[in-house]
Every structure is written in structure tokens, then in C-alpha cells.
Structures
1.
Amino acid sequence: MPSPIVLVTTPEFLRAEATFRSAENLRCVEAPSAEADLAAAIAGTGARYVVVGSTRYQKELYAALPPGGVIARFGVGWDSLDLGQATAAGLICTNTPDVLQTSVAELTMSLVLDAARHLTALDHGMRHDDWAPRTGTELRGKTLAIIGCGHIGRAVARIASAGFGMRVVGCRRAGSVSALGSMPEFAVVTDDIEVAVGRADFVSLHIPGTAANIQFINRARLAVFEEHAWLINTSRGSVVDEAALYDALAAGQLAGAALDVFAREPYVPVSPDRDLRTLSCVILTPHVGSNTVDANRRMAERALGNILFAEAREIYRMDILNRDVIQK
């Protein structure tokens, strides 16, 4: 029997090409990311399985795959998928948990370090013949508030507390606060964001881009930040009101922001007069939190593993996002 075809969207295929090309018992084929083109590729190949990235899929994909097919998300976030449509079509959606937290956590701390020592600004100055030393700050003893205490948030907390001697405050949604004994990375865990952010030197976001979290960081919450504080976002761009953030930064309500994710990607300002790229106190990177050789390989392996479990009818071993589909 020929190996089942797995269509892998181009950006994800290129990030882990060796893993996809060497996959056993599966034939991975590079495919376009655009939804209509991906649907056409499914029709042309008869594929039952696709591996996709953060491109938003809203309609054609769910009609193109046959019932029992798999949409395997290359990554942990699933806000780009419509789980309701997938379930109605009898499709299983999966993600790749527990394989990218180290990469995202390391980038998060890199952005914290950049903010503390002005590395991006100093590099820019040197490249323009501007020898202008700036005074930075040590991280030891500073307070880092982590909003979202899942696997990535806790990985950041471990690096910050054990590696840099920072005081780490965790903030979780009401009703989910664990005992500190089970979360030793944190000095304090609270469900009150004002308590978490109130005296923080750095605030790092690690919450999913769900409907409940859209523009979670808004004008009211930005008003609670200390004037010397930095906002770090390596989670999802949708959780920050970018217009409110621009206004707060321009008014000096907080010291700066380091952003790896944006409401629209590639980045497009919310309005011409609120372009974050024009502010010297903003550090920008193009959504590279999980983009390391190591994490890419692990995400590819996990995505393909989910598909192999589907082939073997070992559904219970899959990282299923829409568990209601099992009942269909």
C-alpha cells in the first residue's frame, strides 16, 4: 500500500524540511498556505491529512478534507482554526504541545535582556556612527510578572528566577490558581492582574489568542503599569490592543514594549498615525518565538505523530483540540 499523502504548507515544510522528507510511512508534500489553493491541492491529491501553520482558515479547508481527516497545527496555538466547522465536518484538529516552550521562553528572556540593556538601540547607534553608551539595569532582584502560567509561562519563570535571580509573580485566571508548592518558580501566584502588574518591572504575556483574551491588555490595564515597566509579548498579537499600547507608550505611561507577535501578520499598523515601528522604545521581531531548529523538528515530529495515530486508529493518543468530534 502506498504511504498516505500529507500536505504540509510551505512555511512549515521549509522550517522542518529534513523531518518531513524523511518521515516514515507518510509521504509529505509541500503545499500552498492560502486556503483556496490548499483546498485545491487536497482535491488534486486526495489527501486526508494536512499540516498547517498560523494562517487563518475559515471555510474551504473544512469542506475539502473528507470526514476522519486531520488538520495538524504546526505549533501550540489554534486561534487560526475554526474548531466548530472542523467538528461539524468530522475533522480532527491537533496541535503540538510541550515541544516549543524552551524556544519561546528563551526568546522571551532575550527580549527582557534587550529591554534592560538597550541592545537594539545601541546596535542601531553603532551602525550609524553614533557612539552613545546608555545606562542599563540588572535583572537580579527585579520583578517579572507573567500573565499565563502554562508550560511556556512556567519555563520563562524558571529561567528568570533560577538563572537571573528575578522575583517572578504569576497571574492565572480566576479559579485556576495552584498551590505555590506545585509552582516553585513563582514567588507569588494570583488571579488579580492589577496585583501582578502593579509593581512589575517587566510584564510578559503567555495567554492563548482565544475570543475571551482578545485585547486583554487594553487601556485600563495599561494604566496600571509602572512608568518604568516593559511589556513583552511572545504569545498572540490579538491579546494586545495595539492602538492603546501605542498611545500609552507615546504618553510615557510605560517604558517600552518588546513584541514578537501582532494583531495582523506581517505587521500592519492599526492606523497610519499609530505605527509601533516609529517608536524608539519598541523592539520588534517577526513572530520567531518557536522558530528554532530544535523546536521546528519537534513540532514536525509531533504533528506527524498525531497523523500516524489517526492512521492506526489510536485516537486516544492524539493531541486533539476538538474532542467533541470523537462523539460524531
2.
Amino acid sequence: MNSIDLDNIHNVIVTGKSGAGKQPRIDVLAEEFHLEQLSTGDIFRHYLGIFNDYTYDGDLTQFWDKKQNRFVSDTIIAEEIGTDNNDVLLGLKAKYFVEQGLFGPDYIVNSLFESTFAEKKYTGQILDGYPRTLDQAKFLLSLTEEKNVTLDFIILVDNTDERIIQRTVQRRICPKCGKVYHLKYKPPKEGKCEKCDIDVIQRSDDKEEKIKSRLLEFKKKALPAIEYLQEQGIPLVKVPGHLEVFTDENVRKSVMDEIQKIAKK
């Protein structure tokens, strides 16, 4: 396993089961290494919001071709919903997968990710939620090699399925700025975002049935991606997603103590 230079960090991957506790660890990395969070979940929700604003209320499953395991043509979708606006079409596809509690297909996720990564000049990023499949991992390595940029290490936030379900159903988010709260560990004062002063909400994909679906998807698809990246020489650091005493300093220490183990001396 390669050691890393903590004074020269370019890009870090953060992975783990949905609801494992990634965000507080991402916050540590952002502060310690002056990185920016690039979240595929946020990208998907951005396009989902565009589609929701369009107010189409038909059954989205009609657009998924089970035999081909992909969407029908954009022309067919556009004729049915009444617009060929690309952002609306992407939003429809994002909403379909969110409603099913499934990861998006690689060809859609890779396209969305590459576009946003390019805007960031391929560096200074915490890759949150990407890659989540073996093909995405191969695409990412090919892209970074092409652009001559570095993937320094992977953070795997470890937590049990049972604890994740208990935690995630109590998660709340500000619909305006995206700040994340938790009814037990980080409760919003009077149910409102401290920054925007509006009511926080429960995301549609934070219901128990959808959480269980995402946990299964992680085991089937994301774990092989992580193993592949390790095989390619990218160091992996496992950090606990649950702490008996949850404080900002304890989270920071639990992350940095593990990273120090793979740092250049």
C-alpha cells in the first residue's frame, strides 16, 4: 500500500453505506485538507428538483425498459411528458432511481459526475458517493489518468445496518441550503435550519424500506468497487461511523488518527 503526503492532498474518496455517518467525516477532511465536497447525491437531487418543478405526475416506471435494463429513448419520454428539455429529462431519470431506492445506472452517473468534476478542474475534491460500482471505479481511474490528477486515499466509514436504519430515519435536511440535522444527535432548533430559518424536512429516500434497499445495493455493487481501487494501489482507511461520545473533536481525532497510519514519515 502506498503512503500519502498529508501536505499534498488532491482528491479523496469517501465511501460507506448510506447513513453510515459520512458527512461529519467529510467535514473533517474539508477542514484539514482544504477540500471541497463533490456529492453525486446532491447532483441527483439538483436535477430531481428541476423535474419536480416541471410538475409531471405520471407513472415513471413506464419509461424503464426492463428487458433492455435502461430507459426508453429520450424522444419517447419527451413526447409523453411534453418537453425535450435535457435538465428535465435528467431529473425524471434521477427521480425514478430515488423512488426505487436504487443507484443510478453507470452511464448516467458517470456523465453527471464527469461534467461536475471538470468544472472543479479535477482536483481539490472529496468524492462523496462516487464511485459506487466497479464500472464507475474503472471510469474514474481512467479519467484521472487521462487528466493526470491524483486519487490520494479512500475513507471507508464503517457502521452496522441496524444502527444505520435507526439513525437515518431520524435524519432531517434543510430544503434550501442542504444542511443535515439529526433529531437525536444534532437536532434542529424548533425544527428549523439555523442558517435559513425554514422548516427542515425528511428526504423521500430516508424511509426505512428505501434505506434497506440502498444497504443491499452497497454490498452488491460498492464493495467490489472499493476492492478494485485498493488493488490498483489506492490506500484505504477505515474509520468508525459510530462513536460512544459524539463530539466534533472525537470525530476529527477518529479520522485523523487512522489517516496518520498511512502518512509518509
3.
Amino acid sequence: MKALIMAGGSGTRFWPLSRIAKPKQFLKIAGEKSMLQLTVERLKGAVRIEDIYIVTARAQVELVREHLPQLPLENIIIEPFGMNTAPCIGLSLAYLEGRIAPYESIIVLPADHVIKAVPAFLDSLKTAEKPAQSGYLVTFGIVPDYPATGYGYIEAGAKQGEGIFEVRRFKEKPDLKTAESFLQQGNFYWNSGMFFWKFETIRTAFAQYLLELNRLLEDIKLVWKQQGMQADITDIYQKMPRLPIDIGIMEKADKRAVIPVDYGWSDVGSWKALADISPADANSNCLPKKNFALDAKGNYIISDKFVSLIGVENLVVVETEDAILVTSKERSEDVKKVVDSLAATKQDNLL
């Protein structure tokens, strides 16, 4: 088994801690190690380090080397810049041709997810092996514990084996009423963005369903052949359609399988999501030790200073050397708008 970890994101929803120079996947926000390090560590025992590949933006290569010094240098796949998941995965597959046998399986993972029950995660990889080797494109569906409107859903169809179901359809992020109906039906799962497939199956799918993207990949391979793997492919890569792999391939493919899983997963997509999985006191406050809270509930605080909370609820406060974020938990996804404003006003020192 090989592993491909996508580590090129910008993590704008974690501003001001996440910056261009050090985005979310390189932060220690879910433990004593960075999220990228935890993702690699999670694979221990199932995938050898020399069989793990990291795809990242050119500007983040040195960060990958710093966080994963044991990773062979040739296992870092360089995007000229961050794109959506279809071009990211397609470029990686082009790079891996000749390095991976057509029959080998690949697990594809984002670098910035949290999975608490690691043994259950590793078991799900074993479950995925059989359908993947039978030509299925496999995804992992998270058993929902509330009617989330921030995730896409996967509807499971007929059972294909123990813990394996055909994918009936993918559904985009629903409204609350629709999400509640999904939970009542019991065969809908959150789309985790994690995939498992055989190399030749996914390469064939790119050629079948993403013709223009696949043509550009052939152009990139020709440049690599003529000029070497370090050649500048920026001009070609910027022409790629910015499609997620779900829309580009998974929604179109004939043989798709979903494995429902429940192992304490979170995509940690906002400060609120991080607060929800972080240790907290009896009043659900998550803040550094030796601070003060009076009639305060459900607050999440990051600061090196002494913090006193009085009569406030469900706040996120994040302090860095040059910026302070104060938001309600429910509006924490709007942090991206701060980043957009900073970029528009050319305040690059805060990005």
C-alpha cells in the first residue's frame, strides 16, 4: 500500500495563527505534533515511510522537510501552487507513474484532519483493500452524529460486503431540514475527503472523465521527460480546471464504494471545530492554565498573556504577536473574510 497526503492548503480559517508562511497543516493545534506529523504517524504499521508521498505547494517544501526529516526527498511532490483536489491528485499520479505498480493500492488523505481512534482507522484501510482491488473507487463516509450543514453527504446503496456499500449518490452541503432527513434515513454519511483506490483504476478514471485535465497531465509528463522532474510546469498547471475530485470523478464513476466509519474524525475546518475536539474545563472553556473565568462558558482562548473571562459565552479569542481575533464560535468560519480583506488591501505582513 502507498499513501498520498495532500498538504498544500492555506488554512485561512485558522488566521491569525495560520499564515502563508506556516499554514494549518504545519501547526500544533491538535496535539504536541503538527497536523502533518500526526497524519504520517497515523499510518505507522500500515504504510512504510518510504511509501508515503506528500504533495504540497512549492512554497511549503522546506516546511515538509522540516516536519518530516525521515521522508525521502523524492517523496515530496511539488505543485507550483495550491489547486483543487482533482489537479492535485492528478499531478501526483503523473509523478508516481513508474514508481508504483498498476495493481498497487493508494490511500489518499488530507494532511489536516483529526482521527482519534487510530486502530479503527487502520482497520478501515484493510476493509478498503478488497473493493479497491476489484476496481472500485472507495471513499470513507463518516457516521454523522448531528445534522451538519457544512459537509457534503454520501448516500449508501446496496451492501457489497462486510462494512462496504455501493455509493448511490453524492449530495452537496444541505440545508438543516435536509440534513435532518438524512440522519433519519440512516444511510447518509459525511463526505470525509479520504479515498482508497488501485493505481490503474484511478488513472483510467482521469483519462475517462477529465479529458482536458488528463491532456494537460500528458503535457507535464512530456516536460518532465525532456527537462527533468524539477522543470517549471507553472504555465501548464495554471490551465488546470479547478475541480474537486468528488465532482470531477467520483460523481461520474460507475464503480464506487463507501465504507462507513466512526473513529472520532474531524476535518477541523474552523476554530469552532477545533474547540469542539479540544480538552475543556467543567464550563466548557478551553484556555491556558492559570487564567481566570467567572460566569463564562464555552470559550476557546489562545494567548500567552494572562486571560480573564467574565460573563461571556462561546467566544474564540486568538492572540499572536501582531494580531488578535475575537469572534463568536458560530461565526468562526467567517475568519476567511478577514484574510480576503487583508489580501485586497495589500496588508501582506498580516497574511
